[in-house]
From TrEMBL:
Annotated InterPro entries: Amidohydro_3, Metal-dep_hydrolase_composite, Metal_Hydrolase, Metallo-hydrolase_Enzymes, TAT_signal
Keyword tags: Hydrolase
Span of domain Amidohydrolase: 188-441
Protein's organism: Mongoliibacter ruber
Designated name of the protein: Cytosine/adenosine deaminase-related metal-dependent hydrolase
Gene Ontology MF, one: hydrolase activity, acting on carbon-nitrogen (but not peptide) bonds, in cyclic amidines
Superkingdom: Bacteria
Keyword check for Hydrolase: yes
UniProt KW Hydrolase keyword: yes
Length: 447
């Protein structure tokens, strides 16, 4: 028997032993969340040994040239990290085998409610080119998706698990074709997966607020357990910026929700929409820190002076940007946004549906794309790119001080076959295990 096979057998033996003692859920591969203990019934104490953590940067006289790591003992209890100790050979500990502990990934822009994933293969139909043409096409597609949407959403969550993601912000269609059924079906899927997955929901008028007559449906959805009021291209779809944005902002204020607006427009209307939203948020300070623009391609289309002024205004209004780190479009000025302290998060958007078929479900993939686009091919830059897939959480800060994990942090983390964050991003290192609040929710068959 090889050393790898022996380690694998020992790992499984320890896990099974802990399961028998009531300390760990008996879950391997794509698990159904019902096999996990519910977060309201926390797991007992779990100890991990041989956990690799980043401890600092190694520098020469010019730059960061490597990342320092050490092995530790990490104790998890009631869904929290309660101790981080010098490594030892504790007999009752799970052997992490020197895998690197990294924060669980956060997919901050996805559509879990409408997907072809786990169903028959189908590519996008190229004859539908504009957003309005795709909306009309979607009116035909949605009725074919709804009967399967709960089960497909569960499968999509399992795909995200396999890529190290334990949380998503999902936009969910609210429009006359699906009415509130897309929302209800997705909520069923998330309830079934809640022991291993967290989510925020955005009520998304995909077919326009006034273009499709979705105002009353949006009001009803706002009271059904969603977290954000969404919107999409108010000028090109509804034909008006002010009326649509006023309705959307007021709905968020009335129901004490955040805002997350899809904005694809790259012309004058795109910039006017950004400026109008900034003004509305400044008029209503309760929306600061709770408002996001998704995509916002206009930021990649303006001149440098306009970009600088817009970034300053976005930062002042505390409006964040969620991006798919797109290629083949205007390159988004992510470094400039970060330079201004604007929160930038990423998402996988459509994994595979009638809009596009290219999604992998991997936030590490998004971090790698960011590194390639902006030539962050060095140790420091690669390590910083990790944050776009973890909602800003990185093991080391810019000065190389260890800032994660800390005692008291939520025990949501990956064990990854990599020497450091930079390697994980550059090489798309495989996720060996994912834990959500102390629950093991995914394990690779190749541990």
């Amino acid at each position: 028997m090889s050393n790898k096979q022996l380690n694998r057998r020992n790992f499984l033996s320890q896990t099974i032993a802990l399961t028998g003692a009531g300390l760990l859920s008996p879950t391997f591969g794509f698990a159904d969340s019902n096999s996990h203990r519910h977060p309201n019934h926390p797991l007992s104490k779990i100890t991990f040994k041989n956990v690799k953590l980043e401890t600092g940067f190694i520098r020469d006289e010019v730059e960061v040239i490597a990342t320092e790591t050490k092995l530790f003992l990490v104790v998890v209890e009631n869904g929290k990290i309660t101790e981080i100790l010098p490594n030892n050979s504790a007999a009752d500990a799970i052997d992490a085998q020197g895998y690197l502990m990294l924060p669980a990934m956060k997919d901050m822009h996805i559509h879990l409610d409408k997907t072809y994933y786990s169903g028959p293969w189908k590519a996008r139909e190229s004859k539908f080119r504009t957003v309005k043409e795709l909306i009309e096409h979607e009116k035909e597609v949605i009725p074919t998706l709804l009967p399967h949407s709960t089960e497909r959403a569960k499968k999509l969550v399992e795909l995200l698990h396999s890529q190290g993601t334990d949380f998503a912000r999902s936009h969910v269609n609210i429009e006359p074709t699906s009415k509130l059924d897309s929302l209800k079906n997705l909520q069923k899927a998330l309830e079934a997966k809640e022991a291993g997955f967290g989510a925020e929901l955005v009520a998304f008028p995909q077919h326009g607020v006034f273009y499709s007559g979705s105002q009353e449906l949006m009001r009803e959805a706002a009271g059904m357990g969603i977290d954000f009021i969404g919107g999409v291209d108010p000028y090109s779809i509804d034909g008006q910026i002010e009326k649509t944005m006023d309705f959307t902002v007021q709905l968020a204020l009335d129901y004490h929700k955040g805002l997350d607006i899809h904005l694809h427009e790259t012309g004058e209307s795109g910039l006017k929409t950004v400026q109008y939203l900034i003004d509305k948020v400044n008029e209503n300070p309760s929306l600061k820190g709770k408002t996001y623009l998704s995509h916002c391609f206009i930021l990649g289309a303006v001149d440098s002076k306009t970009l600088e002024a817009t970034c300053e205004a976005l930062a002042e209004a505390q409006i964040g940007i969620t991006t798919t780190v797109p290629i083949g479009y205007n390159v988004m000025p992510i470094p400039k946004l970060l330079e201004h302290g604007i929160p930038v998060m990423a998402g996988t958007d459509c994994v595979t549906d009638h809009w596009q078929p290219f999604g992998t479900g991997s936030m590490l993939d998004k971090a790698k794309t960011m590194a390639e686009l902006y030539r962050y091919n060095h140790e420091f830059g690669l390590s910083r790119c990790l944050g776009i897939g973890t909602k800003g959480v990185t093991p080391l800060d810019n000065e190389g001080k260890q800032v994660w994990p800390k005692v008291g942090d939520e025990a949501s983390f990956n064990l990854i076959a990599a020497s450091c964050s930079a390697e994980a991003v550059a090489r798309l290192s495989p996720v060996k295990q994912l834990y959500h609040k102390g629950n093991l929710v995914f394990e690779s068959g190749g541990c």
